[in-house]
C-alpha cells in the first residue's frame, strides 16, 4: 500500500532522499510521539545546542537535489570529459584485466561491499577466508613468513615498513637509507613522513654503489630497495641487504607481485620486510585507488606488523575458525604508544586481488608474468635495433629509453596515437607494459619513435625473456595451496564466491547497528559509475588535459564538503580516516613551524577519543596529553583549563570529536575551542560523527580549524568489509597551505587555495575511483536532503534509547535527555546481576539475525548502537524486540533458571551443526537456541561457526591457509 506523505512534517527532500531515508512520515510521527516531540523541527533544536546551530540554509554551493537519472547523466558528462588513452606510465600502476566473475560477484555485489570490518568473526568467516587467501598469496610470492590483511597503498606501506624497521632494529641510529631509483611518489612520502618523527632519509643509488661507498653512508637502522626499480632495472640487492644487516639495519623491499612470479623473492634475498601493491592483480587503476597494499615480514617480526592480521583459531567445538589476530585494535589498546595509526585495511580490494590469484592459479599467474616480460623484451629489442639506448639490459616490464632532446616530442606523438608514456626528463622516457598490452600497442609505441611496424620484434613466449638475469630467475614454488588450484572453471569460481558470501553478514541481510561506524545505505545508483572505464581506467599520473572530468568532479566534491563543514579548503588525498587525522595534524604542525613556534608540540586529547587520534598525534611529532571527561561524558572543562595552563607555551592542538565519542552534543564546545585558541593552539575536530550534525551545524563555525571526514560513513562509500575508505581533510584558510600536496599532482590549486604540504597518500587524489559514490549522494540529496538525513538519524537513535532505557541504562545523554545519532547501552549492571557479559549479548544477537552494535567502545562493558537514517521502523523494532528478549534471557540466568555456564547466551551463537549433531544436553530447547523469535523460521541467518576462542589463536599464531584436512570432521 502506498504511503500517504501529505501529512509530512519533515524537511524537504527529493525522491532519492525518500528512498535513502528508511523512516517515512508515518513512522517518524510514531517515533516522535515515543520520544516526546511533535516534529523533527522541535526535536533537533532540543538536541543540538543553540550556540552552534546554523541559521541559514546550506545551499549556496550545493545544487538542489537531482533525480537518480539526472545524477547519472551528469556523471556521464563528467566521465565523457576524460580522455582514456592506454597508460604505459608504470610507477606502480598498471593495466589489468578484472575477471568478469570477480567484477560481478565481488566488486558489484552488496554481500561483499556492504559488509563491516570483521570484529564479529563468527559472522565474517567468508571475507576472513578471502583475506587468509590474500595473506597466503603475499607470503608465497614474497618468500616471507607472515603477511597482513592489506595496507592502504604501496607508498604508505613503505612508510610503515620504515617505522617497523626503526622499532625492530637494534641500531640506535635515526638514519634510513633509501634507493634513489624508487618510485618518486614513495620518495616524496618517505621524506615528508620521516621528518615529522625525526628520521633522517639518506638517498643513494644502491644498484651501482660499491661496497666501500655503501659503508660510507654510515650507521642506519634500515634500508629501502625498490625491486624491480622505478627505472625498470632488475638487480640483485642481496649484498646491500647483507651489508645493512651486518651493522644492525633491517631491509625493506618494495616488490612487484607479478614480477615475483619470475624473479627471486625478497625473502630469498634476505629481506626482513616486503611491501608493495596488489593493484595489478585484477584491480583497476581508478586514477590512483583504492588498491590493496601489502606487507610481509620474516619470522620474529609478526608481532610488529601494523594494521590487521587474520589468523586461524578454533570455535567452541574445536573446529577451525578465522578471526583478527594480535594488534587488530592496537590504537585502542595502546593509544599514544601505538606504533601505527593504521586501523583499517583495503579489504574489498584485497579480496579482489586474492580471487585473481584463485582464478588464475600459479600457472596462470606465471603465464601472465612471462607474457608481460616477453612484451617488454620485444619492445626493448625493437628500440635497441634502431639505436636507442636503454638504461638497463635487465628488466621485467619497464624500459628507460635515452632520447636526448626528443623526450617531449616522442611522448606527445604517443599521446596523439592514444598512449601515455612516462616523461622522466628532457632526455629520458619510461615505458611500462602489462597484461593488457597488445601487439598492436607495441607497434604504435614503436611508431612514436619513428620505427616502422615491419621492424617491430614479435613477442616470443617460447623462451624465458633474456632480460631476466639468470641469477635472479625464480626457482621456488608459490600458490601451491589447493584453494589456488581447485577453481579452474567459472562455475567453480562463482560457487566459491557465493559460498564465502553466504558465510558473512552484510547490510543486504539486515541492520548493522554499529555506533561510531555509521553503517547506512550504499545506494546502487551511487555505485554505478565506479566501474565505468572513463573513471576506472585512468592512471593517477595522467596529464591534466586528459582528466578534466575527474578533476571537475573532485573540485565539485571539495567545494560541497567545504560548504557543509564551514571550512575554506578540502583535500581528498587521504585514503582513510586515520590518514585524514594525520594530514590535519601535520597541517597544524606546519602552520606552527611556519610561524616560528617550533616548541608547540603538545596535543590535548580527551580520554574518550578514538584510539587513532593519539596514534596520529604521535606520528605527527606531537606529545599527547590526556584530558579527563566528566560523568556525563563531556570534556572536563576544569581539567582542560588546567592542562592548557600547564602547557601554555607548548600547546599545538586539541583534538575533539563532535558530537562526542560518547554520542552526545557537548553544550560547552564553543568554550572549549575558545580556550584553546586563546592559548595559541589550534582545534582539530574529528569528523567521524558528522552524520549527527550535517545541515544543522558546521565544525568551522564553532571553532574548528581543521577536521577529517569519513566518506565511508556520512557520505555513503561502502565499508567493503573493512575498506576502502576516504578520509578527506578540511581546513580554514590559514591552514590550507599546509594540507597535503603531491609532486605529481595535475594541479596545485584547490579552488582559491594551494596545498603545499607533504603527500599523505601515493596518488595525488588518494582513492578517486570511489569519489563518484559520495558525489552522487550529495548531488541526489541536496542540502535539504542531507539535513533531513541527519534529523532522521538522530530520531532513530533517540527512539532506540527511549524504547530500551527501562531494560538497559543509557549511559550518556545531553541536557534534554537526548542523544545524538547513537546511544550507549550500559550492560555492566546486567553483568553484575546475572553474570551475562557484553560478549554474551553480542553473540546472542547473531542467533536473532543481527550484527552486534559496537562492543566496549568507548566504555568497556557497553554496546554503542547507531541505527542510522536508512533503516526502516520494522527493522528497528526487530532489533529492539531482540534486545528486550535477550534481557529476559539474561534475567532467567540471574534467577537460576539456567546455569551460568550453560544457557542460550553463553553458548551463542548456535550453528546448525551444533543443534543437530549428537544428543541435546542443554537445559533449554533447540528451538529456543536457533529460533528465539518465530519470524526467523523462514528467514534464518546461520552462523557458520560457534564462538571463537581468540586467546587460542594468539597463542598459536597461524596466518596462512590451513590445509583442507584441518576442516575434516
UniProtKB/TrEMBL annotation:
Reactions catalysed, as given in the entry: N(6)-[(R)-lipoyl]-L-lysyl-[glycine-cleavage complex H protein] + glycine + H(+) = N(6)-[(R)-S(8)-aminomethyldihydrolipoyl]-L-lysyl-[glycine-cleavage complex H protein] + CO2
EC number assigned by the record: 1.4.4.2
GO MF assignments: glycine binding; glycine dehydrogenase (decarboxylating) activity; pyridoxal phosphate binding
Enzyme class: oxidoreductase
Protein name as annotated: Glycine dehydrogenase (decarboxylating)
Domain Glycine dehydrogenase C-terminal, residue spans: 789-910
GO BP annotations listed: glycine decarboxylation via glycine cleavage system
Pfam family, one: GcvP2_C
Names of the cofactor(s): pyridoxal 5'-phosphate
Record CDD domains: GDC-P (cd00613)
Keywords per UniProt: Oxidoreductase, Pyridoxal phosphate
Keyword Oxidoreductase belongs to the record: yes
Amino acid at each position: 500500500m502506498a504511503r500517504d506523505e501529505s501529512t509530512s512534517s519533515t524537511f524537504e527532500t527529493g525522491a532519492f532522499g525518500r528512498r535513502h531515508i528508511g523512516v517515512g512520515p508515518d513512522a517518524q510521527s510514531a517515533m516522535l510521539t515515543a520520544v516526546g516531540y511533535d516534529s523533527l523541527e522541535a526535536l533537533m533544536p532540543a538536541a543540538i545546542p543553540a550556540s552552534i546551530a546554523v541559521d541559514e540554509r546550506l545551499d549556496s554551493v550545493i545544487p538542489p537535489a537531482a533525480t537518480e537519472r539526472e545524477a547519472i547523466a551528469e556523471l556521464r558528462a563528467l566521465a565523457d570529459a576524460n580522455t582514456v588513452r592506454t597508460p604505459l606510465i608504470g610507477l606502480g600502476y598498471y593495466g589489468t584485466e578484472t575477471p568478469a566473475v570477480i567484477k560481478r560477484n565481488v566488486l558489484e555485489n552488496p554481500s561483499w561491499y556492504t559488509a563491516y570490518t570483521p570484529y564479529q568473526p563468527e559472522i565474517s568467516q567468508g571475507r576472513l577466508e578471502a583475506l587468509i587467501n590474500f595473506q597466503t598469496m603475499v607470503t608465497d610470492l614474497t618468500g616471507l613468513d607472515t603477511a597482513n590483511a592489506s595496507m592502504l597503498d604501496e607508498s604508505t606501506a613503505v612508510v610503515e615498513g620504515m617505522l617497523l624497521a626503526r622499532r625492530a632494529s637494534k641500531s640506535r641510529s635515526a638514519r634510513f637509507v633509501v634507493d634513489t631509483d624508487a618510485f618518486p611518489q614513495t620518495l616524496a612520502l618517505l621524506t615528508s613522513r620521516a621528518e615529522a618523527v625525526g628520521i633522517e632519509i639518506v638517498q643513494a643509488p644502491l644498484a651501482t654503489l660499491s661496497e666501500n661507498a655503501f659503508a660510507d653512508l654510515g650507521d642506519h637502522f634500515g634500508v629501502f630497495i625498490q625491486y624491480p626499480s622505478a627505472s625498470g632495472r632488475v638487480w640483485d640487492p642481496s649484498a646491500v641487504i647483507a651489508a645493512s644487516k651486518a651493522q644492525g639495519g633491517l631491509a625493506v623491499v618494495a616488490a612487484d607481485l607479478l614480477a615475483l612470479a619470475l624473479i627471486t623473492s625478497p625473502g630469498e634475498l634476505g629481506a626482513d620486510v616486503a611491501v608493495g601493491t596488489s593493484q595489478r592483480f585484477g584491480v583497476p587503476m581508478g586514477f590512483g585507488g583504492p588498491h590493496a597494499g601489502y606487507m610481509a615480514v620474516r619470522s620474529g617480526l609478526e608481532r610488529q606488523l601494523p594494521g590487521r592480521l587474520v589468523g586461524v583459531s578454533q570455535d567452541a567445538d574445536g573446529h577451525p575458525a578465522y578471526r583478527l589476530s594480535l594488534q587488530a585494535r592496537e590504537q585502542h589498546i595502546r593509544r599514544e604508544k601505538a606504533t601505527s595509526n593504521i586501523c583499517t585495511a583495503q579489504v574489498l580490494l584485497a579480496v579482489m586481488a586474492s580471487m585473481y590469484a584463485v582464478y588464475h592459479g600459479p600457472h596462470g599467474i606465471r603465464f601472465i608474468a612471462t607474457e608481460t616480460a616477453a612484451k617488454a623484451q620485444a619492445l626493448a629489442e625493437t628500440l635497441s635495433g634502431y639505436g636507442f639506448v636503454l638504461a638497463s639490459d635487465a628488466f621485467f616490464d619497464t624500459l628507460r629509453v635515452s632520447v636526448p632532446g626528443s623526450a617531449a616530442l616522442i611522448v606527445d606523438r604517443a599521446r596523439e596515437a592514444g598512449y601515455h608514456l612516462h616523461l622522466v626528463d628532457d632526455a629520458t622516457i619510461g615505458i611500462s607494459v602489462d597484461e593488457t598490452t597488445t601487439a598492436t600497442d607495441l607497434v604504435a609505441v614503436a611508431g612514436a619513435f619513428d620505427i616502422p611496424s615491419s621492424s617491430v620484434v614479435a613477442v616470443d613466449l617460447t623462451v624465458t625473456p633474456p632480460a631476466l638475469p639468470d641469477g635472479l630467475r625464480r626457482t621456488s614454488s608459490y600458490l601451491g595451496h589447493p584453494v589456488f588450484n581447485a577453481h579452474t572453471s567459472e562455475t567453480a569460481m562463482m560457487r566459491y564466491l557465493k559460498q564465502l558470501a553466504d558465510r558473512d553478514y552484510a547490510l543486504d541481510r539486515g541492520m548493522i547497528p554499529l555506533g561510531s561506524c555509521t553503517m547506512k545505505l550504499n545506494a546502487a545508483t551511487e555505485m554505478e559509475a565506479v566501474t565505468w572505464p572513463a573513471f576506472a581506467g585512468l592512471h593517477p599520473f595522467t596529464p591534466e588535459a586528459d582528466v578534466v572530468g575527474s578533476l571537475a568532479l573532485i573540485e565539485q566534491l571539495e567545494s560541497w564538503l567545504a560548504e557543509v563543514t564551514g571550512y575554506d579548503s578540502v583535500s581528498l588525498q587521504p585514503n582513510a580516516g586515520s590518514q585524514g587525522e594525520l594530514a590535519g595534524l601535520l597541517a597544524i604542525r606546519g602552520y606552527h613551524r611556519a610561524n616560528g613556534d617550533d616548541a608547540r608540540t603538545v596535543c590535548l586529547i580527551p580520554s574518550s577519543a578514538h584510539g587513532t587520534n593519539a596514534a596520529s598525534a604521535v606520528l605527527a611529532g606531537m606529545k599527547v596529553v590526556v584530558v579527563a571527561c566528566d560523568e556525563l561524558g563531556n570534556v572536563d572543562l576544569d581539567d582542560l583549563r588546567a592542562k592548557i595552563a600547564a602547557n601554555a607555551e607548548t600547546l599545538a592542538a586539541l583534538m575533539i570529536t563532535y558530537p562526542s565519542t560518547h554520542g552526545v552534543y557537548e553544550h560547552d564546545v564553543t568554550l572549549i575551542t575558545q580556550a584553546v585558541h586563546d592559548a595559541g593552539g589550534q582545534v582539530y575536530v574529528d569528523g567521524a560523527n558528522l552524520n549527527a550534525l550535517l545541515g544543522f551545524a558546521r565544525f568551522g563555525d564553532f571553532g574548528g580549524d581543521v577536521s577529517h571526514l569519513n566518506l565511508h560513513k556520512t557520505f555513503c562509500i561502502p565499508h567493503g568489509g573493512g575498506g576502502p575508505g576516504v578520509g578527506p581533510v578540511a581546513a580554514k584558510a590559514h591552514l590550507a597551505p599546509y594540507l597535503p600536496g603531491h609532486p605529481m599532482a595535475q594541479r596545485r590549486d584547490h579552488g582559491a587555495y594551494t596545498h603545499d604540504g607533504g603527500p599523505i597518500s601515493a596518488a595525488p587524489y588518494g582513492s578517486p575511483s570511489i569519489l563518484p559514490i559520495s558525489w552522487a549522494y550529495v548531488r541526489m540529496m541536496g542540502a535539504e536532503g542531507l539535513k533531513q538525513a541527519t534529523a532522521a538519524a538522530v530520531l532513530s537513535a533517540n527512539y532506540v534509547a527511549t524504547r530500551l532505557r527501562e531494560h538497559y541504562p543509557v549511559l550518556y545523554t545531553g541536557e534534554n535527555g537526548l542523544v545524538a545519532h547513537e546511544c550507549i547501552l550500559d550492560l555492566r549492571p546486567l553483568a553484575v546481576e546475572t553474570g551475562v557479559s557484553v560478549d554474551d549479548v553480542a553473540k546472542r544477537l547473531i542467533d536473532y539475525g543481527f550484527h552486534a552494535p559496537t562492543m566496549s567502545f568507548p566504555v568497556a562493558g557497553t554496546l554503542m548502537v547507531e541505527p542510522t537514517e536508512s533503516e526502516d521502523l520494522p527493522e528497528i523494532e526487530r532489533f529492539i524486540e531482540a534486545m528486550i528478549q535477550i534481557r529476559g534471557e539474561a534475567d532467567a540466568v540471574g534467577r537460576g533458571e539456567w546455569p551460568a555456564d550453560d544457557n542460550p547466551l553463553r553458548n551463542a551463537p548456535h550453528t546448525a551443526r551444533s543443534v543437530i549433531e549428537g544428543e541435546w544436553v542443554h537445559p533449554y530447547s533447540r528451538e529456543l537456541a536457533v529460533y528465539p523469535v518465530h519470524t526467523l523460521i523462514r528467514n534464518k541467518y546461520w552462523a557458520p561457526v560457534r564462538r571463537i576462542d581468540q586467546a587460542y589463536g594468539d597463542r598459536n599464531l597461524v596466518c596462512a591457509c590451513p590445509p583442507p584436512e584441518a576442516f575434516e570432521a
